[in-house]
Amino acid sequence: MTRPDAPNELAITFLYYRDLPAAMAFYEDVLGLRLTIDQGFCKIYRICPGAHVGLVDETRGMNKWTAEKPVQLCIRVADVDAWYGYARAEALDGLSDLFENDQIGIRAFVFNDPEGYQIEIQSTTRAGA
Predict the structure, then answer these.
(1) For residue 19, what is the enclosing H or E element?
(2) Distance (Å, rounded) from C-alpha 9 to C-alpha 120?
(3) Residue 87, exposed/middle/buried by CB under 10 A (0-12, 13-18, 19+)?
(4) CA-CA distance, 52 to 45, in Å (whole number)?
(5) Please, is 22 exposed, middle or buried when counting C-beta atoms within 10 Å of its C-beta (0-12, 13-18, 19+)?
(6) Angle at CA 75, nearest 5°, toward 55 and 110?
(7) What is the mean pLDDT of the chain?
(8) Confidence class of residue 128 from pLDDT cuts 50, 70 and 90?
(9) Which domains does the chain have, with CATH numbers?
């Protein structure tokens, strides 16, 4: 049997929460993401064409909430400086300084969502990065 050649239709990264309504409020009100699929205990938000994040009630999902979060959600934006100004005004938890990584060609910062997942907002500093 051969692997199907049809293109992928959607990518979803699932994160697990104890307080789903608080996570929803953060992703909608702070990040401005739009709910695109509502599965009840799982809320799926569009980040950009083809990329989504799913917020899952850990009591009903396939995985459970853990204190350690070895996952980072990275969102590339056109203007990282504008987003950094907004993040500072919102006093987001765990907000880092704005930094550049010349090796990989990004300008970025990180902060934590309500249950400790790290979010990186970045812009490219060179073509092809």
Answers:
(1) none
(2) 24
(3) buried
(4) 5
(5) middle
(6) 90
(7) 94
(8) low
(9) 8-58 (3.10.180.10), 69-129 (3.30.720.110)
Residue type, 85: G
Question: Per-residue pLDDT for 7 more than 90?
Answer: no
Share in percent of the chain as helix, strand, coil (round to 5): 15, 35, 45
H or E stretch at 75 = strand 72-76
Residue 94 CA to residue 111 CA, distance in Å, equals 5
Tokens found for residue 39: 């599965």
Nearest to 95 by CA among 119, 70, 68: 119
* Spatial CA neighbour of 18 closest among 90, 84, 114, 86: 114
